[in-house]
Amino acid sequence: MGTILIVPKIGHFTLDNASNNSTMLQSLERKLRDRDIEFDAVDRRIMCFAHIIDLCSGRVVGAIDDESASNPIGLARGAVRAIRGPGLRRDAFDEVVKNGNAKGWFKAGDPPKTIKLKPLQLLRDMRVWWDSVYLMVHRLGVMRPVQ
Amino acid sequence: MGHVSFTADIWSDPNRRPFLGITAHWIGKIEGTTSLQLKSSLIAFHRLHGNHDGESLASTVLQLLDRAGVTGKVR
């Protein structure tokens, strides 16, 4: 292969925090060293910050996530499950939104004003889906006038 | 300066076919000025075959870096 004289140099890698990526960089270190290219797998890895934030916030959510009535996340999940559950109820939810918009049922603000809601469904949270707890609670807030 | 860094991730399409995307990031000059700018560019969007273990990923990644011409001698 000989010496490669291209100016750019390999800098740092950001990957998700899966363990096969550690093996990948260690293997890359060996392969590059075979070509006399200095590369330190640990030094050249920048862990995925978003992944770390997700792990931390997941722990916080997990710690407060019990079945008690004072747990807003549990309450939100219960409400979403009940409404999203079977297809018929989702259709019914759609109907309520459509009807409510037509008849001016929905109010928001202070003093309350009649608003129109977008025809959106509630969202369920999923452990492996980043931000889904936030999205679930946020969507529930957006659709709150339907209550 | 002179270093190119990378972000990469593997995703599956709805038919469960895995794709590896690699983006390069570097500091470059803004044309005709002395100002510097963070630049980035997609250098690979690669259909993965076989294992996703670290060893085979490293071979694929090195091959893709070679193709992009960013493997150079460091210092």
Rg calculated over all Cα atoms of chain A: 25 Å
Mean of pLDDT of chain A: 86
Overall shape of chain A: it is elongated
Radius of gyration of chain B: 15 Å
Please name the two chains that share the biggest interface, counting residues whose Cβ lies under 8 Å from a Cβ on the partner chain.
A-B, 31 and 27 residues
Biggest sheet of chain A, open or closed, and with what strands and sense? 2 strands, antiparallel
Spatially, the strands of the biggest sheet of chain B line up as 1-2-3
Q: How many individual helices of chain B?
A: 1
Strand content of chain A: 5-15%
H/E series of chain A: EHHHHEEH
Residue stretches of chain B low in confidence (pLDDT < 50, at least 5 long) are none
First-to-last CA distance of chain B: 12 Å
Can you list the strand order of the major beta sheet of chain A?
2-3
Please report the number of helical segments of chain A: 5
Give the total of beta strands of chain B: 3
Give the amount of beta strand of chain B, in percent.
Answer: over 45%
Shape of chain B: elongated
Q: Give, in order, the helices and strands of chain B.
A: EEEH
Count of domain modules of chain B? 1
What is the arithmetic mean of pLDDT of chain B? 88
As a percent range, the share of helical residues of chain A equals 40-55%
What does this structure look like?
The complex is a heterodimer of chains A (147) and B (75). By secondary structure, chain A is mainly alpha-helical. Chain A is built from five helices and three strands; from the N terminus they run E-H-H-H-H-E-E-H. Chain A has a two-stranded antiparallel ribbon. The termini of chain A are far apart. The N terminus of chain A is likely disordered. With 75 residues, chain B is of the alpha+beta class. Chain B has one domain. Helix content of chain B is 20%, strand content 45%. Chain B contains one helix and three strands, in the order βββα. Chain B has a three-stranded antiparallel β-sheet, covered by helices on one side. In chain B, a hairpin with a 5-residue loop joins strand 1 and strand 2. The radius of gyration of chain B is 15 Å and the shape is elongated. At the A-B interface, strand 1 and helix 1 of A face strand 1 and helix 1 of B.
